[in-house]
Amino acid sequence: MHTDTQSLHEIICECADAALETQRDDGSMPAGHNGPWSDPETPVRNTGHWAITFLRCHELTEADQFLDAGEAAISYLLSEEARPHGATFHHILSGENLRCNGLIGQAWSIEALVYAAEYLGRPKLAEVASDVFTQHSFEDHLAAWHPVEIDGSVKPIDMTFNHQLWFAAAGGLLAQHPASDPVVDEQVRRYLGELPANLNVTVEGLVYHPFKPDFDLQKYGRVFLEGMKAGTAHTMVIGVLRGLLGGDEGSTEVSEGGWTEKSVGYHSFNLYAFALLREAYPDHPFWGHEKFERSVDYAMSDSYVDALDENPYGYPYNCSGIEMAYAVDVLTDVGDDVRSQWLERQFDRTYEAETASMARNNPDPTTLTARLYEATRVPDTEFEISEATDD
Asked: How many CB atoms lie within 10 A of CB 379?
């Protein structure tokens, strides 16, 4: 099988150059459908992702077309179409999800605004991000946020762990900007301080997909109340029983509700967010906690590599190879070879050189290609890509 040696930054900029043709007059980029979840999306998510990629490619190449495209994408995020009621960003067109896409949609938009605020020297963008962040009610004892719908209505606590984690990570990025409201930093630090209780992992170290803190009567009472509002209280009854029996700490599988597949597929996504927070708060004591160390150790294991194969939430959606390349760079000292191996795993499966896109072996090439933005934080790396046929 023929292999080609590629440079990560060259691939990113080639993909960005190809994507320029798809940008619309209003600055928006094509929308996807949330990968395997199949929820039709607005252009907001992918436009935010591409804004970061375009601006990073301008930094790498000094090509004016990338700067123009990045500024146009940010202009779209500031538009009434993207944020129709002046509250949160409109991410989901239809389906069971909130139109704001819970906390995760807002995290992605805040992330893009903060990146642009720093790169373009436009503090107003950080002010907009701060306004959106602080609209989300924060439960101090639980250390968790409520989603806010695009019309400004406050919804029950987001019960997906990676949503809470990524919202905190976006807040951590925002808190570093002088235009950020001080409450952002306060809430993120509170979130990190409560993570030893709120991070639920198996014995192996796999992060549990739903948000389920260690058993605490006050916490579980609050979560159960939120579950009643959202119609999911029955799952919390199971959670309480498992907490009392020590079920999660006593098993190597995340079996409740069939969450194993999702937990494996989202493990790298969680580690990427941990890495963002580690860079923002390098001295926080959480990084020495055994739960966090277990989650990193699991990601470095052969069993995790094997479990990712054929997982629909891994390489085809969460671009696990790219996420792990960044995570190992920030969270470990394993060296460049491991980073290259993870990039090879991702690009061998999904990259199509002919179209300069992530068009292979995934249900939503539009979104997966936009998610190349995650690679903009990875140091330039040379790695080999095999000319393989589709699975």
From this structure: 11
* Residue-range domains of the chain with CATH: 3-379 (1.50.10.10)
**Rounded Cα gap, residues 95 and 92, in angstroms:** 8
Distance, CA of 285 to CA of 289 (rounded, Å): 7
Using DSSP's 3-state secondary structure scheme, residue 371 falls into: helix
Q: Which residue has the tokens 């440079």?
A: 7
pLDDT for the residue 4:
85
Q: Residue 15's closest CA among 373, 327, 380?
A: 373
Average pLDDT of the residues in 194-207: 95
Given CA atoms 386, 389, 390, 391 in this order, what sign does their dihedral have? negative
Contact between residue 227 and residue 159 where contact means Cβ atoms under 8 Å apart: yes
Can you say whether the dihedral through the CA atoms of 170, 171, 176, 179 is positive or negative?
positive
Distance CA 47, CA 41 (A): 11
Q: Under a CB-based contact definition with an 8 Å cutoff, are residues 252 and 202 in contact?
A: yes
Task: Name the token pair of 204.
Answer: 């192996």
* pLDDT at residue 238 greater than cutoff 70: no
The tens digit of pLDDT for each residue in 275-303 reads 999 999 999 999 999 999 999 999 999 99
Residues contacting residue 306 through CB under 8 Å, at least 6 positions apart: none
- Tokens describing residue 54: 């375009």
Cα atoms in the 13 Å half-sphere on the side-chain side of 81: 14
Global pTM reads 0.92
Cα–Cα dist 164/317, whole Å? 19
Residue that the structure tokens 């009621």 belong to: 85
**d(Cα 107, Cα 114) in Å, to the nearest integer?**
11
- Band (pLDDT 50/70/90 cuts) for residue 76 is very high
Residue 139 parent element (H or E): strand 138-139
What are the CB-based long-range contacts (under 8 Å, 24+) for 114-122?
Answer: 114/170, 114/173, 114/174, 114/177, 115/51, 115/52, 115/55, 115/173, 116/51, 116/52, 116/55, 116/70, 116/74, 117/177, 117/179, 118/177, 119/55, 119/59, 119/70, 120/55, 120/70, 120/71, 120/74
Rounded average pLDDT over 55-59: 98
**How far apart (Å, rounded) are the C-alpha atoms in residues 313 and 267?**
10
